[in-house]
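for the writeup, i need someone to sanity check this before i put it in the appendix. the sequnce is what the collaborator sent (i think, or maybe the updated version? ugh). structure was predicted straight from it, no edits. if anything looks off just tell me and ill rerun, i have time this weekend
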Amino acid sequence: MATDPTQPTQRYYRAPCPGCGAPVEFKSAQSTHAVCGYCQSTVVRSGEVLTRLGKMAELFDDHSPLQLMASGRIQQGGKDVPFTLIGRLQYKGDAGVWTEWAAFLQDGTLATLGEDNGAYVFTRPIDPGREMPEAARFRIGTTTAINGKPYSVAYTGQAQLISAQGELPKLPPLGQPFDMVELRSADGEVVSIDYGHTPPNVERGRAVLLDDLQLTGLKGESVKDEKGRQFNCPHCGAPVQVQLATSKTVTCGSCASIISLESGVGGELRSAEQDEPVQPIIPLGAKGQLQGVHWQVVGFQHRMGVEPGDDEHFGWSEYLLYNQKRGFAFLVDSEEGWSMVRPTTGAPPLSSNGRTATYMGTKYELKYSYEAETTYVLGEFYWQVSRGQKTSNRDFASSKGVLSLEQSRNEVTWSAGDKIASDTVAKAFKLDDKKDVLQRDDPGPFVAKSGMGCGTIILVAVVIIILLIILSRCSSCDPRVENCSSSSSYRSSGGSYGGYSSGGGHK
């Protein structure tokens, strides 16, 4: 554990496991439970006595770079505070699996490092200043206050503990569902409300990068054991390889069927056929560097959108990118160009009329409001994806970038990013031979929806010439004799920045 020589050494409590006799150690006076590292017995501490409660389920191997006893430093109140990871809780919700690491701070307090699909949030327990209402009282997209500060309700759902490891300050019953609510503020704070305790446990914090935590004692580069990660497609029988342990959906490379991994590889596999294939321009598995980060393409989905009251559809593609320490990002290919977007921790506030949103001090103006639907998928995804999935989307833009709001039944997700040039995409993935195919007009944020190409420009020019001829005729026309009015309208379909298909709460 990282220590400060100027501080006294903490007194540890150690006692034999009631199940196997191996030593079980408690470093924090706030910890009440522990899981024996030898026999997986769950033990509870009462004074100087350990009592065995039962056996904990085996950990789901998510190939996290973190491990018990890894140490780091976190900025708290302007101070650099050392901490050590002493416990691990794995939860499964209606939208995915995530991990909460118990962090023992040098001042003797406990915090939580939440890990969800490569995204990290560091939180500490707080007093909300009021009694928390029932979880059902929180409605997605509404605003509530914690200690006088407004927060937007970003997620509501249920979760259950599936496994645990090490020393733990809390331990809800294994496999018993409980409610969870997640709130987000305009300045990037996250508040999680855990109804697995009475009263509900409330924690507040912010997103962090592993590199900023100055972590030591991490696992070496995650080397995945491929055993059990290969199976035959339940539809066509072809071999299917799963690349990421956290994947919830994978497509068959032979028949393109969508295969659900919700029950895990080896469990009951469900497949759904896909026709009318859409081939990605950037191949799955391609590696490239964008914005200073090395990414690998692990998934691809094509989506269609339609504005309310309109029958004209537009389409775009999203490439799911993965980095072990940065998690996931989306490379979006639309008719308006390429953009790189990632989910935000905060919830940008909307104006009263919903026409503007403010994020990181920048005002974004609404460009499109539409219903989105997934039409084709390839590769692996960390959430359950299927054709026909629908969300309500709103895209905003400013001179600094793009901002998207995507809402499903139980979650609101914001994502922010930047437009990038087509040449940058081609160079990043070493696709110089596809430069022409990757080329987009790369316009600024405020353009016609189609991102007008040469053909469209010529068409518009022809229309303008015709209008000028008509107007010149009408200038000498007598309305008492002939119709002197002339009208013309032009509307072009176009792409969208695309949204973020969320895969779970507590990010």
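DSSP finds three helices and 30 strands in the chain. The chain has two domains: 13-213, 230-438.
thx in advance!!
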